[in-house]
Amino acid sequence: MLDEMLEDIDESWNELLKKNLKKKLEGIFRELSKKPPYQPKGKDIFNVFKMPIDKIKVVILGQDPYPTEGKATGYAFAVPPKFGMQGSLSVIREEIEKEFDLDKHSNSKEWKSLEHWIKSGVFLLNTALTVEIGKPRYHLKLKIWENFTKEVIKYISEKHPCIWLLWGRGAQSFEENISEPKKEVSDENIEKISIKNEVNYVLKAPHPSPSTYDGKYGNRLFCKIGHKNFSYANEILKKLGKEEIIW
């Protein structure tokens, strides 16, 4: 079963997922087999690993998949176009619209699948790759995927240093697994920070929770005034000589 699930991952992940972490994954799925239905199913669980590791520009750490049946895509925050805009994703979109002065929810049907992010090199990794249907955060709370996620973060940060967007305490708890050299980017140092390819750059903001979002004044618990995760990430990419993300 596991071999079939990993059939479509990019070969750059073979060493990690098919060799180093194979026993750990087998243990995870033995545990999941004893639990109620979960999603996503089959190969979709590992969709994010279809991206070659050397194509990653930005890693965004999510929490777990959407618990409503059919909404989980294998990519953090993304939702199939047939579904409505989800809470956290809507907050993210609102912030991008303000930051880049975009039309409100322009092309939102296509936008919410986040395929354009993925094609641009944004690696949308949930810290738990599965969720029990109807029970949000349940597999996250059980820490079924925690050690696996730590190994993935370490592997990326060592093999291909990049930009990391850590939103919320959950995502930020994995910061210690990002290998050195790494630098935290903030309003205070974005203009003077030295940019090098071999460094992991970390940008932080609280989680984009819709329960604390105020569209007029911005989400004080997400992208604060002057704290521009998206444009700062693009500024780093530009200094590295890489193509910017079309958020």
Mean pLDDT: 91
Query: Biggest β-sheet: count, sense, barrel?
Result: 5 strands, parallel
The CATH topology, please? Uracil-DNA Glycosylase, subunit E
**What pattern of helices and strands is seen along the backbone?**
HHHEEHHHEEHHEHEEH
Number of strands: 7
Shape: globular
CATH evolutionary superfamily: Uracil-DNA glycosylase-like domain
CATH architectural arrangement: 3-Layer(aba) Sandwich
**Rg value:** 17 Å
Low-confidence stretches: none
Strand residues, percent: 5-15%
* Helical fraction: 25-40%
Distance from first to last alpha carbon: 36 Å
With strands numbered from the N-terminus, the spatial order across the biggest sheet is 3-2-5-7-6
CATH class (first level) name: Alpha Beta
Number of domains: 1
